[in-house]
Amino acid sequence: MASPYEVTAVRGPSELPRILELQRRNLKQALEDDEMLSQGFVTVQHDVTALERMHALAPSIVAHHGDDLVAYALTMPRECRALMPLLVPMFDLLDTLEYRGRALREQRFYVMGQVCVDKAHRGKGLFDQLYAKHRELYRERFDLLVTEVSARNTRSLRAHERVGFKTLHTYRDATDEWAVVAWDWSEAS
Question: Considering only CA atoms, which of 78, 94, 106 is closest in space to residue 178?
Fold first, then answer.
């Protein structure tokens, strides 16, 4: 059975405000505690300028259901480090980590900037489809996809594990406890 969703790279600047609207509705500060626990949440708020710069380097992936943008997975190459000052500490940490006996900074990887699926479309395989499209589009350019997930966001952690991510490192900062996870495409078939 064909998917009712069209999953593609961002097709133009008109999609960026639609990404931000979906993001705004799912920020942790916009949700009640019980909803965050059961449904997950996003932590970082982007702006159009940052998304434009990110997409100039490597377009993010979006899912449409008819005319509606219902999910996104933000592509954040390492060159994006300075675009989001809030994320600089994460990039600094990644510079100190190793994967398979080699410094991570010496390997071909990019960061998943954020994944979000609209409430009405959760549990329908979109999360996996977004990541499958990332792998399809970027596997020749990168060997690893790395991200960090709040340890409190158990829904997201389980979904990342299901796709194939493995935990590289955990740490606590002033805001939360985090799991740094990576999906190794060099091993995947």
Answer: 94
Q: pLDDT for 108-148, tens place per residue? A: 999 998 888 998 898 899 999 999 999 999 999 999 999 99
159: CB partners within 8 A, 6+ apart = 127, 128
Cα separation, 175 vs 13, in Å, equals 32
Q: Do 188 and 143 contact (CB within 8 A), yes or no?
A: no
Alpha helical stretches, state H, 63-179: 88-94, 126-138, 154-163
The pTM is what? 0.88
Residues 6 or more apart in contact with residue 86 via CB below 8 angstroms = 44
Among 6, 109, 23, residue whose Cα is nearest residue 61: 6
Please, are residues 83 and 53 in contact by the beta-carbon 8 Å criterion?
yes
